[in-house]
Here is the input.
Amino acid sequence: MLTAEEIAAFHKDGFLVLERFVAPEACDALRARAEALVAEVDAEALGSVFSTTSRVQDRDDYFLGSGGAIGFFFEAEAFDAEGRLAVPKERALNKLGHAMHDLDPVFDRFSRNPEVAAAVADLGLAEARLLQSMYIFKQPGIGGEVVPHQDATFLRTEPSSVLGLWFALEDADRDNGCLWALPGGQELGLKSLYRRDSAEGMVMEVLDGSPFDLTAGRPLEVPKGTMVVLHGLLPHWSAPNRSPRSRHAYTLHVIDGRARYLADNWLQRPPELPLRGF
Here is the structure.
């Protein structure tokens, strides 16, 4: 599926941009399904706020139990001072997560694309398992910042094996909060661990407090249908979306089925929903 040059570029940069990898019709079908799921949910009864800046979800049972569910997570700026939604429900959500790929047939079909499976295998995950899925809305005007991070901080295996697959369901640019990546940053080593602690809920354990040099970051401005592959140790982030345009995206995280998934990871799957491959 991938050329030798593409594989070499991934190992050098820590990411690979494959433009127009997914047909526009498939992107539209996933968007329509996400919108249908949102239409069905009672915004006053379900969901919680998700933020990478305040980490309000660290003690939230709804978030911590979503590894085997379809959860609804709101933008912090979607609420007024009294805690009421200040925007329509369909404009209030930060994301859906984290098991749509196993629980919804439309998400399952998009996620288990043979071309995606072939690309993942070419990058070394011959026994890949689909661990986590997220539908990111990046709402116009209030789409939250995603701070610089490494996926291996949150989804750890021994040995480390996580790959991120990020799909642009709309054109993404600097105005509406595109991804940024630090080329070669996967060589810097793991900076922190996000893990369960029986006494404190979730904790962020710092392994290396030196900051990333974000001045070397590269904006990944890509058209609809692009798949971006992210090494688990690659620092990446996105700015808030203050534009009038949304930036919908879909993210899958896959791990090597031969690696050990650690018991103190935040994301835990129920026994009735074991991990599956492509």
About this structure: The helical segments are 4-13, 24-40, 61-64, 100-103, 105-111, 114-122, 151-154. The chain has one domain: 4-261. The two ends are 15 Å apart (CA to CA).
